[in-house]
Amino acid sequence: MIKVIGFDLDDTLWALRPIMMRAEKLLKKWLSENVPQLQYDLIESQTLRQEILTESPDLDGKVTELRRRIIARALALSKLDEDAIDTLTSAAMEVFLAARNEVEFFDGALEVIKQLSENYTLGALTNGNADISRIGLARYFSFAFSAEQVGAPKPAPDLFARALAHNNVDPQEMIYVGDDPVLDIDTANYLSLRTIWVNTQRRDDRGKTDPDVTIEDIKDLPEAVYQIVQSE
Hints:
Layout: E1 4-7, H1 16-34, H2 42-55, H3 63-76, H4 82-100, H5 109-117, E2 121-126, H6 132-135, E3 141-146, H7 147-150, H8 158-167, E4 174-178, H9 181-190, E5 194-198, E6 213-215, H10 221-231
Parallel strand pairs: 1-2, 1-4, 2-3, 4-5, 5-6
Helix pairs in contact: 1-4, 2-3, 3-4
């Protein structure tokens, strides 16, 4: 019997690209106003990212800490003292994370989540750093785990294992809903979860396994869940 529904977040419940573009723009503006001598743009940040990952490969998948290190490194190159770097890095991260969590849900997504929460335990499993409390999903989701928390991003099984253990359910008692045919669907299928592929982008590429159900509109999710429940 299905008891739990887990969700990927970015590009499953909202489009990520416009959110990140806006967050990057606001971060750059804040830095230019508060540290005018700093050279910080997309090219510069990507260069610093590669440098830091080469030095600390364990940061791969730790998106929040990696960004914090990038900003701190950029500030250090501006010859600021250590206390100023710490203060400005924390403030800059808050600017970025606040903007990053101002999401625009796909049409009908919140209504679907509210409906499903009445009958199932809901939660999030994400490689990103969306915060369900900031976004307003904590009222419906009873758990949320990120790759940064568990120490390994999808397609590693760690996120799914944590969710199963947290909810004390078998894989067949959980549905996972995601947009990526490899990171979401294949990984969940390999662990014997039931799966729903939210293919809002009408992608032709598929993973190595098939989802139980494919939908192209998040509003069709309750019917997809019903199909899986009826097939048990």
